[in-house]
Amino acid sequence: LLLPAGVGVGLTCSTLWTSLGVYVKNLSQAYDKAKGLDSEKEGTLGIFTGFTDRAAPQLGGLTALMGSSLLLRLTGSRRLLYTLVAASLGLGNLLFFFLPKHGDTSPAEKEAARKKAEAGAKAGGEEDEKSGASLLAVPKLLWKSSTLKKIGLCYLAVGFSQSYTTGTFTADAVAQTMGPEALGMTMAVNNTMEVVAALAFGRLSDIFGRLPCYLGALALEAVNPLYFAFFPVVPGSGQRGLMMLLAACLGAGSSGCVCCLRALVGDLFEGEETGIAMSTTFLILSFSAGSGFYLGPNFGLQTKARLYACLLGLSIASSFAAVSGAKRDKEANA
Questions:
Q1: Is pLDDT above 90 for 208?
Q2: Terminal Cα distance for the chain, rounded
């Protein structure tokens, strides 16, 4: 039963996050328009993305982590816990039906967005068919867009960070040095920093730009894997302060990177290509996260940390190339 359940969760979550990303972009543009803000220079996409994509989910996860532990301690009833989880999911899905509509709703606006997206694509070849309803939309856009290829390389590190945080760091570092009883506290620190960093980096990226904030988040994220790449874990050594610091850096850095990258995708793609580009990045993220878990016990903490650090280095080069390439394309089409 676990295998079909995992497939179902993966399908629903990927669809949800892609749709949410497009909706948040439309929502931020509607807010900017209502406030008289220039979306390109003083927009709010970063803070909207930070709150909806990272801060709110991580805050909910942190609350659920503490609440479930308390509930099990007081009642010992797993059935009651599962019932509350199912009720929360049902309520959350029900609320989606009450969300107001934003974005390109009129045919004229949809046509304008489509023409703008086509103008930004590279010239040459026959015009692609409308890809929104095609199963080949993701590979077609990935093949056509050099910018998406470069951003996709950045998402390799994003995906690997998920398996590294929940599997490698917790099991091979925290549990080995402080014992399994410290896992809850460590993840609480990690999740708390994810919430704070999402809001901070989201707003800062609106002010100072996506790339500088992304590089700053990468620097924070790299502290953890670089440490374990050169210093082995000593079992039973304690090191509570060090582990908490490394958990905080990992949480803040990875959250800031995801927030900046999601907003960057929203900046660089328009119209129906926005949703397709976000679907592509989630596909790459899922592949990378799964690969990290597949490595399992075959590779130790130090090897995985070095691989993680290499992926972060690749992200630096890819992000520079993506932003500079998109800027050149924009100037050429101006």
A1: yes
A2: 54
Q: How far apart, in Å, are the Cα atoms of 139 and each of 63, 134, 168, 308?
A: 38, 10, 31, 26
- Listed in sequence order, the residues at least 6 apart from 160 whose beta carbon sits closer than 8 Å to its beta carbon are 288, 289, 291, 292, 307, 308, 311
Query: How many angstroms separate the CA atoms of 183 and 240, rounded?
Result: 11
Q: How far apart are CA 66 and CA 7, in angstroms?
A: 27
Higher pLDDT, 319 or 124: 319
DSSP secondary structure of 152-219: HHHHHHHHHHHHIIIIIIIIIIIHHHH-GGGHHHHHHHHHHHHHHHHHHHHHHHHHH-HHHHHHHHHH
Query: 266, 226 in Cβ contact below 8 A?
Result: no
CB atoms within 10 A of CB 292: 24
Q: pLDDT tens digits, residue range 160-177?
A: 998 899 888 988 899 888
Better-predicted residue by pLDDT, 260 or 115: 260
**What is the spatial distance between Cα 270 and Cα 92, in angstroms, rounded to a whole number?**
28
Q: What is the pTM for the complete model shown?
A: 0.82
Asked if 188 and 65 touch (Cβ cutoff 8 Å), the reply is yes
